[in-house]
Amino acid sequence: MSSRGSRRPLRARFSAWARRDVSAGLLLALAAGLGLAAANTAVSGTYERVRDFAVGSGSLGLRLTVGQWVTDGLLVVFFFLIGTELKRELVAGSLRDPARALVPVVAAVGGVVVPVAVYLGVVAASGDSQAVRGWAVPAATDVPFALAVLVVVARNLPAALRSFLLTLAVTDDLVAITVVAVGYHQSIDLIALGLAVAGVLAFAVAASRYPTGWVLVPLALLTWGFMHASGVHTTIAGVLLGLAVPVFDPGCRPTSQAARVASAAVGPAARTEHRLRPWAACVVVPVFGFFAAGVTVSGVGGFADVVTAPVALGIIAGLVVGKPVGILAATFALTRLPRVHLDPDLRWLDVAGIAMLGGVGFTVSLLVGDLAFNTTSALNDQAKVGVLVGSATASVLAAMLFAFRGRHQRQNRPKPRG
What we know:
The protein is an all-alpha fold. The chain has 17 helices and two strands.
C-alpha cells in the first residue's frame, strides 16, 4: 500500500474522532488544565510572554496580543458554528416547531435569569462596584463541554435528552451573546458597524448563490474587520455570518418536515459544519481554553483566597445552584400550563440532569469574564477560578444524577420471559 493510501484512512479516522462531542470536551478540559498548570509552574513567565506578545498592524487597529487574537479572532469560528447550528435548528430542527421548542427555550431563559440574580446577591454584600460587572458570567452554557459530558454519562438514556440540551444550550448562548453585544462593548463606531452589517448582508447574498464558495472567505474577513473596528465584540459577527449560511441548496424547496430534515442534513449549513467542526474541536476551543484558563493561584493560601472571593463564590453559586434551579423552576412552571408537556421520553430526573449540565459554563463564561474585567486584574482571576470550579462541580453532579437515572432505568426494565 502506498504511503498516500495509508494516510487517507488515518486522516478519515481522525476527522471522525474530532467531530464527536466527547472529543471536543476532552480536548477542552485537557487544554484548560495545561493552561492552569502553565500559569502556576516554572514556565509561567514564558506562558505570559507568549500570551501578551503583540502581533499585527497598528495602522489598521489590529495590533493585538496573542491572547486577544485568540479571543477576538480564532474564537469567532466557534461562534460561527453556533450560528449555523442555530440556523439549522430554526429552519429544520427542534426550534422550527414552537410547541416542541417552547419548553427548552423557556428553560434556558430561567437558566439565565436565576444565576444572574444569585450572582448579584452574593457580590452585593462585598460592596465592590466593579464585581457587579461580572453579572453575566454564570449565565452561559458551554455547548461542546456539556454535550461531551452527556455523551459519556447518558449513553443508554433517551435520545430526546440531547435535543433538549442542545436547544437549551444554543438558546442560552444566544442570550449570552446578546448580552455581550449590549452590555460589554466599547464606544461604538456607527459607520464601522454599518459596514459590518453591510458585510453580513453581502455574505448572505453570496452564500445564497455560492453556498460553499471561496468568495465567502474575504467577505467574512471584511465583516470581521469592520465589526472589530466598530467596538462590538467580533463574536457577534461570527453568529450573524453563521445565521446567513443557507440550510438548503439553491433551488431546493422541501415541503414536508421529513424532506426538510433530509435536505438540511446535506445542505450548505451542514456541509460547512462538517468541514469546520474538527478545526473548532481540535484547535479553536482548546487554544482558547489554554489561554483563558491561565490564572495564577499558586502559593500559600492562593487558591483558597481566590475561590472564596465574592466574584468566584458568586459564579460558583450561579452555575451550581442558580442554573439548575432556574431551568427546573421554569420547566416546571411552564408544564403546569394546558397543552404544554415534556417530551414523552423524558422524566423529571432527566430534566434535573440537564439542568445541572446547564451549569457547565466554561467557554462563553470565560469570554464574558474577560470582557467584564481587566484581563490582568484580580477580579478576572477570581472569575476564571469561579468558572472552572463551578463548571467542574456541575459536571460531576450531573454525571451522578445521570448514573442514578441509568441505574434506576436498568432496575425497572422488564425482564424477558424465559
